[in-house]
Amino acid sequence: MKRNAPTLTALCLAAALPLTACQSHTQSCFNGTCHVTVKGAGQTIEVNDYDVRIREIGPDTVRLQVEGTPTVTLRTGSRTPLGPLTIQVTSIEENTVKFDAFFR
Fold first, then answer.
1. pLDDT digits over 63-79, tens only?
2. Measured on CA atoms in the order 58, 67, 90, 24, is the torsion positive or negative?
C-alpha cells in the first residue's frame, strides 16, 4: 500500500512526539551568568554558544558535560569548572535540574 508524502510525514512526526514531549529547557542570561532549567535528560542544550549535554537526572544528582569534557556527576549546591563554564547546581526535583552557568 502506497502512502503519500504528507501522510508519511504526519506519521513520523506523531511517532517522534513522545520522545521529545518530556524534554525542555529555559534559560536567562545576564552579566556573564545564565540561570538554566532543564526538564528531561538525554538532551544537549546551548548555553551562550556552548553545548551542555544533560546525560542523566537522578533523584539527587545530575550527570552532565560541557563542550565534550568528561562527564561529571553533581549534587545540589556543588560547583565545578567544566571547559569554558563553571556549573553550579541549584536544585534537582524529579526529572528537572536547575543550574547556574558562569563564563570564565
1. 999 999 999 999 999 99
2. negative
